[in-house]
Design a protein that fits this description.
single chain; 392 residues; alpha/beta; Rossmann fold; eight-stranded mixed beta sheet; five-stranded antiparallel beta sheet; 13 helices; globular
Length: 392
């Protein structure tokens, strides 16, 4: 997710919602407060995040407001440039060439990536037999269906939408900016013990509240040897999802693209306030209680934890690198070269998009790609050089 980073005063200058949007947020707050009341006045932050993002008909990803693109709250790589999907298609095509006949995209959002991938795979004569889309949001299912109907209507017969993971799957699984939006536990080290963040109501407003962490959560956090006062997140829901992928993946490759770090960077002493971030109308800020239901709430991904979860499920980590290195390995410069360089009006915007996707100052270094495999020993194109598995 790429918001415009605000200056220090912008928290007070975030755009005002419409009366209808504010009423929707009020309904989300009521839903959350009801659960806080049912929980004796306290709710784990992970559950708060789950409700704010996914409560049926109310949560940020479950309701009808536009999330992605210029009219939403953030943009992702597929909206920034079709070159992202066209380049990723080369990695997908390699898997299809190896006999992996299906693609499963987790959280397709607007459908921009699916449309670009299908279009490019058709051009490469590498179309999958089926393109499955796992999308929990009815609204986003409809938006992605509309996108595909507009851009690749003749390929719709190959596409099916799912509400849960299939019981078994062989093929290529894709997840672009999926793990970061899964509910996370917020914890801190205090007096040699671990506290868990929760949400309570104070003077009529939602706010933070801390309690001793339950045994399993505390044990996991203590293993990190955090310094006194250190606050961070544990992405147990994302790890559980990866284990679920391991349960259903019979043969194939799962590729996840997201922003984050290996553990030694994620829990660096200078990152003592954690990575929790919110996105609203292309502004980034740190208040998860601002207009619940109208903003995204995310954390960066601990890729070491994701790798361990994959191992627990019997998956191999078969690649890990930066987004820039992955795209370069997959041939993004060759894809760009297909544009007529003598027509500046067409070429220059694409060149600027490539820079945004690959520059260390933009998405190139912060975003990573991890590949998880079962029964697929062939080297992957996207990790031919610059593989960083040794850092996990």
């Amino acid at each position: 997710m790429i918001p415009e980073l605000p200056d220090a005063s912008s928290r007070m200058a975030l755009p005002e919602p419409s009366a209808e949007a504010r009423a929707h947020s009020d309904a989300v707050v009521k839903r959350i407060r009801d659960e806080i009341d049912a929980g004796a006045g306290w709710l784990p932050f992970s559950r708060y995040m789950e409700l704010a993002l996914y409560a049926p008909g109310l949560g940020y990803y479950s309701a009808g407001a536009r999330k992605l693109g210029r009219d939403g709250d953030f943009v992702t790589a597929p909206e920034i440039s079709p070159l992202f999907g066209r380049t990723l298609a080369r990695q997908v095509a390699q898997g299809l060439d190896a006999g992996l006949e299906q693609v499963l995209e987790v959280g397709a959002g607007s459908g921009a990536l699916a449309a670009t991938l299908l279009d490019e795979l058709e051009r490469l004569e590498k179309l999958p037999e089926r393109y499955l889309i796992l999308e929990l949001s009815a609204d986003l299912r409809e938006r992605s269906r509309d996108m595909l109907a507009a851009r690749v209507p003749h390929l719709l017969e190959r596409v099916a939408w799912l509400a849960s993971l299939p019981p078994g799957f062989s093929g290529v699984i894709l997840g672009n900016e999926v793990l970061d939006a899964m509910p996370a536990d917020v914890i801190r080290a205090r007096a040699g013990a671990i506290e868990q963040a929760g949400v309570t109501v104070d003077r009529g407003r939602l706010g933070w509240s801390w309690r001793p962490a339950p045994e399993a959560l505390a044990k996991e956090a203590l293993a990190l040897h955090l310094p006194e006062g250190y606050r961070t997140e544990l992405q147990r829901a994302a790890c559980a999802f990866v284990r679920s992928v391991g349960d259903i993946l019979e043969r194939g490759v799962a590729l996840f693209v997201d922003y984050g770090f290996p553990a030694r960077e994620y829990y660096h002493p200078q990152r003592g306030d954690g990575t929790l971030m919110c996105h609203y109308r292309h502004h980034a800020h740190e208040d998860p209680f601002f207009l619940p239901g109208l903003q995204d709430i995310t954390t960066h991904v601990d890729f070491s934890a994701i790798a361990r979860a994959a191992g627990d499920a019997g998956l191999d980590v078969c690649g890990y690198t930066s987004q820039a290195q992955f795209l370069i390995n997959c041939g993004i410069t060759e894809v760009l070269a297909q544009a007529p360089s003598d027509k500046a009006a067409a070429y220059l915007p694409l060149a600027s998009q490539v820079n945004r996707l690959t520059s260390p100052a933009e998405m190139g270094e912060l975003f990573k790609v991890i590949a998880l495999c079962r029964g697929h020993a062939a080297p992957l194109l996207g990790f031919a050089t610059g593989d960083r598995r040794h850092t996990l």
